[in-house]
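The following record pairs a protein chain with its ligand, zinc ion.
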Amino acid sequence: MSSSIYYCPICDQDTLHQVVESNPAHYSFAIECPICSTVSLANEDTFNNYEDVRMGWDEEVKSILDSWDLQ
Ligand SMILES: [Zn+2]
């Protein structure tokens, strides 16, 4: 079983979702929030790229913070 950070609409935050089923109808994954046990459906692109998008944001924030440190 794999897991990945994903947005949970019930918790209204990013949580480490576990994949509970691969390839349910029309989607690539059914994933479950560990906090509220809500099952979300995600397609492969959204699920696999989510962390990368987040990482991109983090890098951007980090570069902004770094530029502040220099001043
Ligand atoms: Zn949740």
